[in-house]
Amino acid sequence: MKRLPSILLGLLIFGCTETSETEVIYLTDKQNDTCNTCAFSLVDYYSINSLDTLPSTYTGTPANGSLNHAKILPPKGKNFFYFDSTSYLKDRAFTHSDIRDIVLNTYANLDVIYPGRIFSIMEASNKKGGKMDPHRTHQNGMSVDFMFPKLKNGVPYHHLDTLGFLHYLLDFDENGRYTKDTTISIDFETSTHHIYLLALEAEKLNYAIEKVLIYTEYKDELFRTTYGKKLKQKGIYFAQYLTPKINNLHDDHYHIDFKAK
After folding, report:
1. Which of 187, 183, 120 is nearest to 156 (CA)?
2. Has residue 60 been placed in a domain?
3. Which residues form the domain of 164?
4. How much is the pTM?
5. In CATH, what number is assigned to the domain containing residue 166?
6. Alpha carbon 33 to chain centroid distance?
7. Does the pLDDT of residue 35 top 80, yes or no?
């Protein structure tokens, strides 16, 4: 079993956590959109933190930077949700305004291509950027983590997506199969299609994908897919080496750093 970094354990113990798939994915009213032990509903929190309409600016790099006039990602949309209410209410879902637009425009495209499919955003940046443990990057609003979409017996499967921070504890083998139930696996085709669409939307706003971090053992599976081949043709850089600890933490999600052209 993976060892969860202490900062994540702290968020689990002292924060709010999702309790059911219904609460996380199908948020249809204020009651279901409220973290049980928090003062604000996620929608209220989003509204309060959406008042700044000035364009975002950033300094430095994803590994050493800051963020001004950050924009918070929505807690949910038609085909996506933010993975953990604790993280959301601790200001870890902010990003640069352009990156927010790239992410949301891509989800709109995915909704047309994969109607009824649900996706999940993981962590982004702090409200003012800077260090955000346990991440080594995510400092200037240019980094976003995305949960790998999954299949069960070849059919889209979302149940494991609603675990909140416990999702980091999930173990997948080098072929993307969930070790506790090998009928559940990473959907590499949809994952690479998502990354490809992010790259296209980034280009429209004069940005590019600077780097993708994934569990390095997945590369053969990824580049075997239709859109994995297209990502390779576009020259999208996938990190060649990660330390064992960092590598092991990226079997359930992919990390993307964007850059301005």
Report:
1. 187
2. yes
3. 6-260
4. 0.86
5. 3.30.1380.10
6. 19
7. no
